């Protein structure tokens, strides 16, 4: 008898057809940039934005006492208050600083995320540095309005580079999955890891992202995996910010907001905005003050590079504590020396301003763009990061506005205020800020289940990896949920 080939069932035939269609769609979304080249491109565009952020902060420092600037803006009285130079530029900077860290974090491998995001922080200081040197170079153009117009106009170059570069970058895989664009998400993950879409590591990352989105779809805001979450909470991302339960959203959002607040109340903008003026107050000449301020910005940049190489080995908590302790001691010494007259005290105070920048660059500069993005879950990341960034700008404005009047009224006592604020930060970080170099959804759910502090759980070595059966059990994802998660893959 002739042998006939086996006949596929209708269901098997449909499944094979869907797989073929899905694979073809993934291939159609293949990116020209892959692996290291794509990672570098993302870091470049994100870094350009933060270079502009730093430049925008630093450029006004020397312009405040530039002769041509004072002629055009005579209402600026530096010794009594800081000028209100909040412009459309500042508004735009605030927008992209609330989105770029999340975008970069979601496109970075977990093992390198800390270093990659801290590069952004380092590039803030790079922007500060180049703004100081440009201001110093144009200080000699005292007879022309170019003395202040050129430094401000040069920001356009960085803005155009960012606008042009972003057009070549992909969307975040997490956002694509949320929009049910699964094939495109898999193609992006494949390009980031420079491996084929069916590679085991690529598939593991892809399914972990889909599970995270599934948790959101099932109303993870009050209790991860709880399908009985009220519908009004499921529909409103903003309301999810204020719930607790196993996800601990409100606590996590609060930590992100506090982290950004703490960065500003350390007193860093006392130096960034007022560097030239501070050195003049120490008795240095106008030219010498500008030169040392530029050198201070340069040292600030090189100190920030240190954190890039140690963040993923040492961890977030230790660096924040190291920075806060060093900043507190430095502010105390500045206050003591401020009450002493003499050349020795002036020279030592100048050196301490460099020392303060170093502690801040290592412990807090890039940390506040990394920590808020890591501490919160995917379902609330966008509004949570917007809130934390708003906290940064609110306290930035507050510190800058009160510093001038404070020096005018209590002089070196201003340093005591900032020393006290840094001292306040130390125990708060130690007792309430968990280490975020792990899997935060699992850490907070485990802490909730066991009734212990998330800080304790974050320091443990036995926390299961996201996507593992142990993690799913902790998160409350049962077998049915996993089936639902994987069943929609071929879309």
TrEMBL record:
Which terms in the GO cellular component ontology are assigned?
Answer: membrane
Q: How does it sit in the membrane?
A: Multi-pass membrane protein
State whether keyword Transmembrane applies.
yes
The portions of this protein that span the membrane are 38-55, 115-134, 146-169, 261-279, 291-312, 319-339, 351-372, 384-404, 410-433
Pfam families, alphabetized: Sugar_tr (PF00083)
Q: Which reaction does it catalyse?
A: myo-inositol(out) + H(+)(out) = myo-inositol(in) + H(+)(in)
Q: Where is the Major facilitator superfamily (MFS) profile domain?
A: 1-437
Write down the superkingdom of origin.
Eukaryota
**This chain belongs to which protein, by name?**
Major facilitator superfamily (MFS) profile domain-containing protein
Q: Which organism is it from?
A: Rhizopogon vesiculosus
High-level lineage: Eukaryota, Fungi, Dikarya, Basidiomycota, Agaricomycotina
């Amino acid at each position: 008898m002739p042998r006939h080939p086996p006949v596929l069932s209708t269901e098997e035939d449909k499944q094979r057809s869907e797989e073929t269609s899905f694979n073809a769609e993934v291939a159609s979304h293949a990116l020209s940039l892959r692996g290291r080249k794509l990672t570098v491109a993302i870091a470049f565009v994100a870094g350009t934005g933060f270079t502009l952020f730093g430049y925008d902060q630093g450029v006004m420092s020397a312009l405040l006492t530039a002769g041509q600037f004072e002629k055009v803006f005579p209402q600026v009285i530096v010794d009594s208050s800081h000028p209100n130079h909040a412009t459309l530029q500042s508004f735009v900077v605030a927008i992209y600083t609330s989105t770029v860290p999340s975008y970069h974090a979601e496109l970075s491998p977990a093992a390198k995320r800390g270093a990659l995001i801290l590069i952004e922080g380092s590039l803030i200081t790079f922007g500060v540095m180049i703004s100081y040197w440009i201001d110093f170079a144009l200080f000699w153009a005292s007879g022309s309005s170019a003395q202040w117009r050129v430094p401000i106009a040069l920001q356009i170059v960085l803005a155009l580079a960012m606008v042009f570069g972003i057009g070549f970058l992909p969307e975040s895989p997490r956002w694509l999955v949320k929009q049910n664009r699964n094939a495109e998400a898999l193609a992006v993950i494949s390009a980031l890891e420079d491996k084929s879409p069916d590679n085991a590591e690529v598939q593991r990352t892809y399914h972990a992202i889909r599970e995270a989105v599934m948790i959101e779809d099932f109303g993870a805001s009050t209790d991860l995996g709880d399908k009985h979450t009220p519908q009004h909470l499921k529909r409103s991302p903003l309301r999810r910010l204020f719930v607790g339960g196993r996800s601990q959203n409100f606590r996590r959002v609060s930590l992100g907001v506090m982290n950004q607040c703490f960065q500003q109340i350390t007193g860093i903008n006392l130096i960034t905005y007022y560097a030239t003026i501070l050195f003049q107050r120490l008795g240095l000449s106008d030219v010498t003050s500008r030169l040392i301020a530029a050198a201070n910005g340069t040292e600030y940049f090189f100190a920030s590079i240190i954190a890039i190489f140690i963040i993923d080995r040492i961890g977030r908590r230790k660096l924040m504590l190291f920075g806060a302790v060093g900043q507190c001691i430095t502010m105390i010494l500045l206050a003591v020396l401020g009450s002493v007259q003499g050349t020795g005290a002036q020279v030592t105070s100048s050196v301490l301003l460099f020392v303060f920048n170093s502690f801040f660059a290592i412990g807090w500069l890039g940390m506040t763009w990394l920590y808020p993005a890591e501490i919160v879950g995917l379902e609330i990341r966008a509004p949570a990061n917007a809130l934390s960034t708003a906290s940064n700008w609110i306290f930035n404005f507050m510190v800058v506005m009160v510093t001038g009047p404070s020096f005018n009224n209590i002089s070196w006592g201003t340093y005591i205020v900032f020393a006290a604020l840094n001292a306040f930060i130390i125990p708060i970080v130690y007792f309430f800020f968990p280490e975020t170099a792990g899997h935060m959804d699992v850490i907070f759910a485990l802490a909730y289940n066991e009734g212990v502090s998330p800080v304790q759980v974050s320091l443990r070595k036995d926390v299961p990896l996201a996507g593992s059966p142990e993690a799913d059990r902790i998160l409350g994802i049962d077998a049915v949920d996993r089936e639902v998660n994987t069943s929609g893959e071929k879309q």
